[in-house]
Amino acid sequence: MALCLKQVFNKDKTFRPRKKFEPGTQRFELYKKAQASLKSGLDLKAVVQLPPGESINDWIAVHVVDFFNRINLIYGTMSEYCTEKSCPIMSGGFKYEYRWQDDSKYKKPTKLSAPQYMCMLMDWIEMLINNEDIFPTRIGVPFPKQFQQVCTKILTRLFRVFVHVYIHHFDSIINMGAEAHVNTCYKHFYYFIREFSLVDHRELEPLVRMPQ
Q1: How far apart are CA 56 and CA 27, in angstroms?
Q2: Integer Cα distance of 180 and 28 in angstroms
Q3: What residue stretch is flagged as signal peptide (predicted)?
Q4: 119 a known binding residue?
Q5: Is the four-CA dihedral 80, 81, 82, 85 of positive or negative sign?
Q6: How far apart are CA 116 and CA 99, in angstroms?
Q7: pLDDT tens across 157-187, in order?
Q8: Is 168 among the annotated ligand-binding positions?
Q9: Overall domain count for the chain
Q10: Is 164 annotated as contributing to ligand binding?
Q11: Does residue 100 belong to any structural domain of this protein?
């Protein structure tokens, strides 16, 4: 019997602590607006559109953090099925392999297991979204010039989590009764990155038919 979503997706299974928005800030208000639109049952293609008069960088920042939280939760739930033994390579089927590179430990693209890749990815994103020089939270502090470029890299790598989960662990998603929730999260993510052209279309090829 499928578990209810409250049992499947609980805070104890998050891969990393949730990043929260400070109440009273513009970004918190944008987050509430985005969540209200999602819960209203509006078409997801309409939900991702920039609200009139709002800053595109604020809108992107809110969604990057929210997607980090959601995908973090999905993978945290799946992590018991994604092990060094079951997933010795971070991949999306036989055709796609994802190697890790950063500016510190792995300066060249390096083959990692899926669990290792996920750990590196979540640590890296957490470091970026907590960096005030990249994701400023103080009123009047501008976003850096490379902000959208950084977000593109974050979202591209988060997309790879969907690729791995769908291709290698979809049976587990179905067995947990989480298929509808994961599908909705993926569609929301997909329509957002397409709306603002934030991920190269070549990266989307492994799941090109999924939104339909």
Answers
A1: 11
A2: 27
A3: none
A4: no
A5: positive
A6: 11
A7: 999 999 999 999 999 888 888 888 888 889 9
A8: no
A9: 1
A10: yes
A11: yes
